[in-house]
Amino acid sequence: MLDCGLDTTSVLNFLPLPLVHSPRLSKLPGWVSKDGTLNLEKELKECTGRVFVDSQPEFCLPERELLDLSTIDVILISNYHCMMALPYITEHTGFTGTVYATEPTLQIGRLLMEELVNFMERVPKAQSATCWKNKEIQRLLPGPLKDAVDVWTWKRCYSMQEVNSALSKVQLVGYSQKVELFGAVQISPLSSGYSLGSSNWIIQSHHEKVSYVSGSSLLTTHPQPMDQSSLKNSDVLILTGLTQMPTANPDGMLGEFCSNLAMTIRAGGNVLVPCYSSGVIYDLLECLYQFIESANLGTTPFYFISPVANSSLEFSQIFAEWLCHNKQSKVYLPEPPFPHAELIQTNKLKHYPSIHGDFSSEFRQPCVVFTGHPSLRFGDVVHFMELWGKSSLNTIIFTEPDFSYLDALAPYQPLAMKCVYCPIDTRLNFHQVSKLLKEVQPLHVVCPEQYTQPPLTQSHRSDLMLELQPPPMPYRRCSVLNLPFRRRYERVYILPELANSLVPSEIKPGISLATVSAVLHSKDNKHTLQSVPKPPPMPPSKKRKRVIEEPPVVLAPKPLLSGAVPLEAFLATLQKHGITEVKVEETADGHILHLQAEDTLIQLEEDGTHIVCDNNEPLRTTLRDLVLRFLQKL
Amino acid sequence: MLDCGMHMGYNDDRRFPDFSYITQNGRLTDFLDCVIISHFHLDHCGALPFMSEMVGYDGPIYMTHPTKAICPILLEDFRKITVDKKGETNFFTSQMIKDCMKKVVPLNLHQTVQVDDELEIKAYYAGHVLGAAMVHIKVGSESVVYTGDYNMTPDRHLGAAWIDKCRPDILISESTYATTIRDSKRCRERDFLKKVHETIERGGKVLIPVFALGRAQELCILLETFWYRMNLKAPIYFSTGLTEKANHYYKLFITWTNQKIRKTFVQRNMFEFKHIKAFDRSYADNPGPMVVFATPGMLHAGQSLQIFKKWAGNEKNMVIMPGYCVQGTIGHKILNGQRKLEMEGRATLDVKLQVEYMSFSAHADAKGIMQLIRMAEPRNMLLVHGEAVKMEFLKGKIEQEFRPLPDPKKPRTMHGTLIMKENSLKLVSSEQALKELGLNEHQLRFTCRVQLQDPHSDTDTLHRIYTHLKSVLKGYTIQHLPDGTVMVDSIVIKVSSSAEDTNTKVLLLSWSYQ
C-alpha cells in the first residue's frame, strides 16, 4: 500500500468546536427544509446561508472495501501528512503487515496525530449526528452537503491508544537504505525535498523498477534536497502529490505573508496564522527571524500554540541528518540547525500547549499567533477566530494549501477581520514535473486523473496539466490498473566452481551459449546454482551407519541441435569416409540420399535429418557423427 | 581501509600505521577505494590526519555525523598534548586536521552508499560511543561486516548494537571482552559511584580528569542520576572546556542515544545537567567535599593539573583516571604508582591522595559477540582487537555453537542454456535459447527396420509387443497410442506387414538423437 492519507476536507462540512462556550455558534438556527417536511434542526445548523453538521468532525477515509486489508504486507509512507489515516487501516482490520517510514516522518507524524486527537478529545461532543447521512435525506439537503461522497464511511477521530498501536507497526528506514521484502523485491526511500524525512520510494526487483514519487519539492527549504538521479530507468513511475497551488509562487507568497503581517501589526492589529505544527511553519519562523529586525517588529510577541508546539520545535533541531546541507553543517559547530531556537531564547517566540494556563496570563496584543487546525474547525484557532473576527484591524493569513479559505471561513461569517490568502505549497508544479520526467525518462507514468486535464476553473490553462508521450495512465478512486510490465526473469547466482566448468561456444558474433546442468538452491527467494555433487565415496571403515542422503538424480537433458546440413559439403564428407554410391533425389523439403551399397536412406531437410538404417550400428554411428559435424549442439 | 587509529603506547613511528605496507612510493589514493572510520576514539581515528595530509590520501573518508562532529575536537586535543606539551615535531598541525575533515563524507545509519561502481557500504548502530557504527561492505555477491567497537546491551545513554541478517562472508568483530560474560560495565559503574560516594562522605574531594567529549558526558549522566537518587548535596563542577558546547553535541545528536533518552528529551534533556555546575578556579580552595570534572584527561597541563597540585597532598582526596594516559604525563606516572613527582623548578610534589583507574568502555562481551553472530549469520568470523589467548578461547566457543546446518530442502537439478551477450548473462531453457537467437531446432532421427515372423494381425502383433515390453522394461513409460504406435519413452514402434508375406512383420523403430 502506497501511503495512507486522510481526507480532512470533510471536516469543512461541520461546525467549529469552540474551546469555550460560544454564544454565537450556539444561537445558530437549526435547519428545516423549505417546505417544512424535513426537520433536522438538532443535527444541522445554518450560518449565512450555509448548512453545517453540528457534531464531532469526521474524516473521509481511504478506500477500505475494495480489498481485504489483512492481506496487505507492507505500507510505504512518503511523508508525515500522508500517514494520518494509519490507525483506520492497521487497527481492527486484521492488518498484520509492516509500515515503513523514516524517523522524522514517524516522530512528526506522531505529533500531528497526537495533536488531532487532543483537539477532538479536549471538547467532547456528547451526540453524533447520523440522520443526515441517510441517503434519502442527504439527497434533499442543500449543497455542498448534498454532494459529499461516501458520507456513511466517514469516521470520527481515532484514540491515542489506536495511534500508539498503529505506530508500533512502523519500521524505521533511512534514505537510500535498501530493504528486502521477502527476497522478492527491494524497496528504498529517497529524499523528496518536501518535508523533514519525506521520501519517494523505489520498488525494484533485479529486472524491473517502479518509482513512487509523492510530495516532492525542488525548492531549497529546510529538508534535504530531492534525490532525482535514483529515479532514472524506471519501468513505471507513479506520480502524485503535486502542488495544489500551481499558480502560486511560494517565494512570492512568503513575501506577501511578511508584508501583510507587518502592515497589520503596525496598524495595531493581531495576526492569526492557521497552520500545521510542523513543516512550512519552520520556514515561516526562519523568514520572520530575518524579517523581524528590518521590519521593526522586535517587540511584537510571536506565539505558537499547539499541544505539540514544544515537541515540534525541539524535534526539528535533532534531525540534522535529514536537513539541507546548510542546516546540517551547523551541528558541527555545534549550533541548532533552525534559528527558531534563538527566537525562543530571546523570548521573541513563545510556545504554549493551549490557550488555557500560562498563555492567558502572558498574552500581549498586538501579536502574531501560529496555531491549528488550518481547517478552522477545531483546535485553538477556533478561539482566536471568535476573539478577533469582529475587528477589521486583525488579519488572518492562510498559508496552508489544503483547504479552500472561503469554505474554512464560512461558519464564521459575517467577518470583519481581513483575510489574506497566501498558500505556500512547495511541491512540484507542472513545469517542474515535466522537466523532471524528461530527465529521469520513465517508460510509463501513472498519475491521478486530475493531472491529465487542466483544472475545472481554468480549463484554458493547458500548461496546468501533464502532457507526456506516451500519455500517462490515469487513475481515480477505486479504479483498477494493470501496470505495463511483466516479471520474467529472476537473478540466479552461479557458484565459481560451476562457472568454471561451463564451456561456452560462440553461436553468432558476440553471442555465446553454454549448456548448464546444475543444482538449484532457493532460499528466501534467493537462487544459487551449484555443480551437481558427485556421490561421496563410501568410507569403508565407517562403523556408524548413517543414512546417506541420496544424490539428486541427474537426468541428462535431451541435447538440442540447430542449423542445417548442407548437401554438397555432406556428400563430400561421405565420400571422404568411403561412401561413394549415393543417389540424390530432390524432394519438396530437401533431399533424400540413397546410400546404395549400404542400403541406407538419409533424408536431409532444413529442420531435420532422418537416418533410416537397418541393423548396422557402426554405420549408423558414423553417419550420426558426420551429421553432427554440421550442427550446433546445445 | 577500516579505521585509521593511533597506538597510544608508543612515542615513535610505531604510533601510526605503517603505510609502506600499502605502497612504497605510490600514492595511497591509488590503492584505497575509501577509508571508513567506525567511531571517534583515537585508537580508531587518531592517525587520520597523518594518513591523509602527511602520507597523502585524497579519496573519500566515511564516518557518521556525530563522529564527524566530535573526532576533530579530540584530534586537536591530542595534538596539543603531543606538540605543545611534549614538544614533539613531525606531528600533524591544526590546519591538517581541518583539511583532513574536508575529505569526510558523512554516513547516515542504514543508508546504502555507493562508493564506486562496485563497492557499496552501509552503516549500522554500534552502541559503544555516540555515533559509533558497524559497516557492511559489499562487492558483487561478497560482503564483509566490520564491527569497530560495539556494545550489545543498552547503557545509560546509548542503545544496543543492531544488525540485520545480512549474511556476510566474513564478520570482523572486536573481542576486547572475549572471555567476560557478565555485564561488566554495570559493575564498574557501581564501583565508581561507591568510590566517589565514600570520598564525599568522609569530606574528601574527587578530581576526574577527562577530555571534553565522550566519557565526560557519560560520567556526568552517571553522577547526575546518582546525586538525584541519593539526594546528595555536595557540589559537582565541570571546568572550562567542558562547557555547554560539548553537551550541546549530545543534545543535537539525541537520535543516536538510547530509546529512553530519545523518548523523554522534549520534557527533560539528559544532557542538561541540574546538579552539575560550571567551575571557577577559586572553588578549588573551598572547604568541604566536591567532585570536579576537569580537562585535560591526562593531567599534563591546564586546569586538571592545577587542581591536582592543590589536592594531591591530602589523603582524603581522590583522583579517578577514567581513560588511558600517554607515557610522560603525570597521569601515566601516578597510575604507575609514582608517589613523588618532580615539578617545574626542582619542586617535588608528594602524592598522598588516592589514585584510581577505571575503564568505562562499553564493549560486547562473549555473550554479546555470540548474539551478533546470530543476528548477522556470517559464513566466517575474524576476531580482532583483543588478546590472543582470549580470542583462541572464543574461537572454540564459536565453532562449538555455530555448526553449519544441512539444508533441509532437497536440491533440484536443472538444465538450461546460458546466453552470453556482451556483458549480460541469461539462463533460459534450451528451447527458449534457440528461439531468442532466431535459430531453428534441427531434428535428428533414426529409423531401423526389424523383421519378425508372426501370424497375427498387425494390431495384435503390436499389442503383443506392447504387453511384452511392459513386462520386460520396468521403470519406463510405455504407451500404446490409438494411432497404432507404441512409445517407449521417446522411441516409436510401428508394425506393418510385408507386402509378399503377411506372416512377416516389419517393425519400424524410430528414435531421436539423445
From TrEMBL, chain A:
This is Integrator complex subunit 9.
TrEMBL record, chain B:
It comes from Nibea albiflora. The gene is CPSF3L. This is Integrator complex subunit 11. The lineage of its organism: Eukaryota, Metazoa, Chordata, Craniata, Vertebrata. It comes from the Eukaryota.
